[in-house]
Specification:
This protein has 395 residues and is of the alpha/beta class. It is built from twelve helices and 13 strands. Helix content is 38%, strand content 15%.
């Protein structure tokens, strides 16, 4: 049996007719950039997330870039984030001229560790007279970017306690976690809605995927939303008048039309992913494999939340990761490694001065994690085959 890591064909077959109808309507209108489809999708995201403002942009990467620009984060600034994530998170920080500051992860969840943030501040920063923070090299720390990795929200209460104490903005990287929920204070909050701004990626493989690149920013502050809308059009307001330098961060009408069709199905797709994750857990437990591999953590499961985890990826851990992956490939089971190196070890960030051993949990995760096939339509037969192949490897 061949088991793909992800198969979007069934999703498309189910929605092909309404998607083609919407695409044809866009083609007939000849409105391709920031038209009524984008406006309608933005309103739908506001309703879904419970935020007053949603700004459609060209990708998740451009979403973070626009947020950093809108908050005027740049040279002589620093931003705290995780090294265990996709490159774009730190890449955007560097692109605006700020310094990425990497801290370690919680080994159970893979998300940024609030304790590690606090430890970095205590050991490497000094407070200004106004209560803000500066690094030893003199940069002003402006923000924290927690990444809700693989569809699980970070510990946002603890992160906000730190941000409020030191006057830092919180920018949520929710690129992998649209729809995921967290018990934030007294309310059930969706990923992306617990900071100054949050953003999503609609890369085709995401739980809510476009037919190409697309992204979205959500926020509560009207002034920030206005700045973001101006920045996504080269800083142009009114037409051909530029008060600030922005970028070409616009969401295409066709992508918005496709995403608008898909959005009402998102929660049912996430529920199907959770059901698949539950089945994996059940089978791994039944075969006694939980002593051989680490399963995904579910710290928010019993907190009265529907979407406590949306399982963008199903990631296990084993010290024998590479050998296991080789064996699964022989059985035609697709897997992926997210991520083979912490960002602090990437060559392009060597100028930051990190060395091997600085972030031990990040480095261990990079050696041990392996993503298994998961998508809403994955069959239980295919999952049994995957689990059986893993059991055979350890036997």
């Amino acid at each position: 049996m061949r088991v793909p890591l992800l198969d979007l064909s069934e999703q498309y077959r189910t929605l092909a007719k309404p998607i083609r109808t919407e695409i044809d309507a866009v083609l007939a209108s000849q409105r391709f950039i920031l038209g009524p489809q984008v406006e309608a999708f933005e309103k739908a995201i506001c309703t879904y997330c419970g935020t007053p403002h949603a700004i459609g942009v060209s990708s998740g990467t451009d979403a973070l870039l626009a947020i950093l620009m809108a908050l005027e984060i740049g040279r002589h600034d620093a931003v705290i984030t995780t090294a265990y994530t996709f490159f774009a998170t730190a890449g955007c920080i560097a692109r605006v001229g700020a310094r990425p500051v990497f801290v370690d992860i919680d080994p159970a969840t893979g998300n940024i560790s609030p304790a590690a943030i606090q430890r970095y501040i205590a050991e490497n920063c000094q407070a200004n007279a106004d209560g803000g923070l500066k690094t030893k090299s003199g940069e002003k720390i402006r923000a924290i970017v927690p990444v809700h990795l693989f569809g699980l929200c970070s510990e946002m209460d603890a992160i906000h306690q730190i941000s409020e104490r030191y006057q830092l903005d919180v920018i949520e990287d929710a690129a992998q976690s649209i729809g995921a929920e967290y018990r934030f204070g007294e309310r059930a909050a969706k990923a992306g809605t617990m900071g100054e701004a949050g953003y999503f990626s609609f890369y085709p493989s995401k739980n809510l995927g476009a037919a190409g690149d697309a992204g979205m920013i959500v926020c509560r502050d009207e002034e920030l939303a206005t700045r973001l809308r101006v920045l996504r059009q080269h800083g142009m307001e009114p037409r051909y008048y530029h008060q600030v330098i922005g970028g070409n961060f616009r969401l295409d009408e066709i992508q918005a039309a496709i995403l608008k069709v898909k959005l009402p199905h998102l929660d049912s797709w996430s529920a199907a992913r959770r059901a698949a994750a539950d089945f994996y857990r059940q089978e791994f437990t039944r075969l006694g494999l939980t002593k051989r591999i680490g399963l995904p953590a579910e710290p928010h499961r019993n907190r009265g939340l529907t979407n406590h985890h949306i399982y963008h990826q199903y990631v296990i851990r084993t010290a024998k990761r590479d050998q296991l992956r080789e064996q699964l490939a022989k059985r035609e089971i697709d897997t992926a490694i997210y991520y083979p190196l912490g960002l602090h070890e990437q060559k392009c960030f060597s100028y930051l001065g990190y060395k091997k051993g600085d972030l031990p949990e990040t480095e261990r995760a990079a050696r041990e994690t392996l993503a298994l096939p998961i998508y809403p339509e994955v069959s239980r037969e295919a999952q049994r085959y995957v689990v059986g192949a893993i059991a055979e490897f350890f036997e």
